[in-house]
């Protein structure tokens, strides 16, 4: 009834080959640590100086070097992998991609696909200067349908980064049977310092779901800085494991029986009236 899971923290750069090599090394470490499910961060395969830079790496669903890497690595390591996000081609629109999170089982088969639905179009004040982010200029909005899949660790609900600020998505996932949630992210340093932990723990507590939250860390092309602090959280909101800075693997063991007992003794999910 217990399963070891992993959140992979990366400092991705504007070089797909280098990022895939780093991801392979970290995923191999996670598998060696007993992980049956590993989640990569948002933009794990490419982080350029500008959002539009990823357009040249767009892949059609079902083929391409990044998807082949995920499938081959999952099979080679006999481990389920959530591929953070990859730039997935939008049919008939070469100006945009989907920020797609793909799940591969331990046989290398794609079993779930979620396109990020909330896009980071905000201005962030950092060190007296305004950083502007407009993901919708180069990323297409995904479907609003909640996406989840069965995994060795339980029913996994999919989300990405900025989705974290919209609790209705996670309520929908938990109401449809999700037992754990993943939030692959590239949370900025400024917003991460203020809100990352509190939002993740809130999503865990209000849904009585475990949360796997891998984040990007450090400085990237163009000077963008991300917060790190990848973590795995219990359904009771406890931080089971965390890595503050630097690339690495965060491992924790989830207990499905303990979660069932918590949901039985504290049945808040059954007390909803709205």
What does this structure look like?
Belongs to the carbon-nitrogen hydrolase superfamily. NIT1/NIT2 family. Keywords: Acyltransferase, Hydrolase, Lipoprotein, Transferase. Residues 3-256 form the CN hydrolase domain. By secondary structure, the protein is an alpha+beta fold. It has one domain: 4-Layer Sandwich (Nitrilase/N-carbamoyl-D-aminoacid amidohydrolase). 25% of the residues lie in helices and 32% in strands. It contains five helices and 17 strands. Strands 1, 2, 3, 4, 5, 6 and 17 form a seven-stranded mixed β-sheet that branches. Strands 9-10-11-12-15-16 form a six-stranded mixed β-sheet, with helices on one face. Strand 2 (37-39), helix 2 and strand 3 (80-82) form a beta-alpha-beta unit. Helix 1 runs parallel beside helix 2. It is globular and about 50 Å long. The two termini are 33 Å apart. The mean pLDDT is 97.
Architecture (CATH level 2) name: 4-Layer Sandwich
The largest sheet is:
7 strands, mixed
The CATH homologous superfamily name equals: Carbon-nitrogen hydrolase
Question: What is the CATH class?
Answer: Alpha Beta
List the main descriptive attributes of the protein structure presented here.
globular, 7-stranded mixed β-sheet, Nitrilase/N-carbamoyl-D-aminoacid amidohydrolase, 6-stranded mixed β-sheet, 5 helices, 274 residues, alpha+beta
């Amino acid at each position: 009834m217990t399963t070891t899971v992993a959140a992979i923290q990366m400092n991705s750069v504007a070089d797909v080959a280098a990022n895939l090599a780093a991801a392979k090394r970290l995923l191999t470490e996670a598998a060696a640590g007993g992980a049956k499910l590993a989640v990569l961060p948002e933009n794990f395969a490419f982080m350029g100086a500008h959002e539009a830079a990823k357009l040249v790496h767009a892949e059609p669903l079902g083929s391409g070097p990044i998807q082949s890497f995920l499938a081959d690595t999952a099979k080679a390591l006999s481990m389920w992998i959530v591929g953070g996000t990859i730039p997935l081609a939008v049919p008939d629109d070469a100006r945009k991609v989907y920020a797609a999170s793909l799940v591969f089982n331990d046989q290398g088969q794609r079993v779930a696909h979620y396109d990020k639905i909330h896009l980071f179009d905000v201005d962030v004040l950092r060190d007296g200067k305004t950083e502007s982010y407009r993901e919708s200029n180069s990323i297409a909005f995904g479907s609003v349908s909640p996406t989840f899949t069965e995994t060795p660790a339980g029913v996994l609900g999919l989300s990405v980064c900025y989705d974290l600020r919209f609790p209705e998505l996670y309520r929908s996932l938990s109401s449809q049977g999700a037992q754990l949630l993943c939030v692959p992210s590239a949370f900025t340093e400024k917003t991460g310092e203020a809100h990352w932990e509190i939002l993740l723990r809130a999503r865990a507590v209000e849904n009585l779901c475990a949360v796997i939250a891998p984040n990007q860390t450090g400085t990237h092309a163009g000077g963008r800085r991300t917060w790190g602090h990848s973590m795995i959280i219990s359904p009771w909101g406890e931080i089971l494991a965390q890595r503050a800075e630097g690339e690495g693997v965060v491992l924790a063991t989830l207990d499905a029986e303990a979660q069932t007992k918590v949901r039985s003794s504290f049945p808040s999910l059954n007390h909803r009236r709205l």
